[in-house]
Amino acid sequence: MSGVASPAAAGSVSDIANAVTNGERSAVSVVDAHLARIDDHEGAVHAFNLVTADAARATAAAIDERLAAGEDVGPLAGVPVAIKDNMCTRGVPTTCSSKILDGWRPPYDATVVERLASAGAIMVGKTNLDEFAMGSSTENSAFGPTHNPWQLDRVPGGSSGGSAAAVAAGFTPLSLGSDTGGSIRQPASLCGVVGVKPTYGAVSRYGLIAFGSSLDQIGPFTTTVADSALTMDVIGGHDPRDATSSTESFGSLVDVLDRGVDGLRVGLISEMTGGVIDGIAEDVLARVRAAAEALEAAGATVGEVSVPSSVYGLPAYYMVAPAEASSNLARFDGVRYGLRVDGPNTAAMHTASRTAGFGPEVKRRIMLGTYALSAGYRDAYYGSAQKVRTLITQDFDRAYADFDVLLAPSSPTTAFELGAKTADPLTMYLNDVCTIPSNLSGQPSMSVPFGVGDDGLPIGVQILAPLMGEPVMFQTAAVLENAQEDAS
Predict the structure, then answer these.
(1) pTM of the full structure
(2) 183 is catalytic
(3) Which candidate in 26, 98, 159, 189 is catalytic?
(4) Catalytic-role residue among 84, 99, 126, 421
(5) Helix (H) or strand (E) segment spanning residue 55
(6) 395-432 residue pLDDT tens
(7) Structural domains of the chain, ranges and CATH numbers in brackets
(8) Which H or E run includes 178?
(9) What are phi and psi of 89, to 5 degrees?
């Protein structure tokens, strides 16, 4: 089955912003062009739960008026952006792709939504996701699956598959996703775009509907590393409304992109590139090795490094994340907002609302998390998982004592067929085996496109860095991107 992938169709974030700011293009014309592409191909891709065409045109017209009056509207002037449908948008439905929130309109904007708007970006819609961000393929949505723009019978990855697909299809040059166990980096790899999971606390989570509060992080999808750096400069920084928001700053990421990697120490994670973790395809490993060679050719020193406890990341994650989800999703009870199914008493109403409102994967994780937190089992399961989490963090810290950045696959394989893994939850969970460790440690990582697999579908290489190590991560990513362009 053919695809509709065309990231270049949207243009780059910086090119659009410069053209609108300089008067070479109007914000209205930019939005109209992107909405036309959405009209042409959204039926095949289903990247969006909602396209906000009228509001986008109105915002674009207002930006044009401000520019005509001599105002500075910001570094993202006129740039269309798609927002994952688990981030609050004032007055605009925010569903988490779940029936239990179908039609709910938040009374406030998420901080990242505010910051994008203040920078001149224009929201054109809310993107599809695995329900409550629980999944690796965007097949768990209550509103139907998203299709990979490269090949429409393949998944785009998940849970931020709609956001990744929107950029890959050229619907927008920029989108936001959330990453709890790989939900930005894995779909970025499968859709051939750049995807960034920042340091935990570097980007505000205020207004992000929680899945796993100690793991969730918001980040961008773009077509270029420079566009992701520009977006991070806009959405990052301390937010007093988020108690976990970091007061530490790593400065402008745009300013580090031309530093190169001469003298940097790059470590290949042996557990993910040397056959210790099963299921990573050889064509994926070949691209990671090629990326290491490209960095070495650019002046970096490359070696292997062990992060031994990373092999336990998957089981630890599937204790910690469901436990936090069990707590976070208790608020969806049919009383305060969202779906309500009446019953003869309060308990029956709660049960009926949650039974009708939540899908199978969400119910599975709530039950798993509730069990892990139950009396007599909390220490054995949740407590043990937190100890493994500490070991993973310590192992990464030891690795970063010898290396500046680490390399690994972003996804074990290229995009698989829709329906291929839905019958076996464990098989689906294994898609995040390379990305989960960074969520458990809270450290940043990103996926950069680096060629294609044997099937002609995209492969992303994951770059990992220590806490607040975004600058060295982005300067490495810029070199990889240039090496890929030179080789193509």
Answers:
(1) 0.97
(2) yes
(3) 159
(4) 84
(5) helix 53-68
(6) 999 999 999 999 999 999 999 999 999 999 989 999 99
(7) 7-258 (3.90.1300.10), 312-382 (no CATH)
(8) strand 174-178
(9) -130, 120
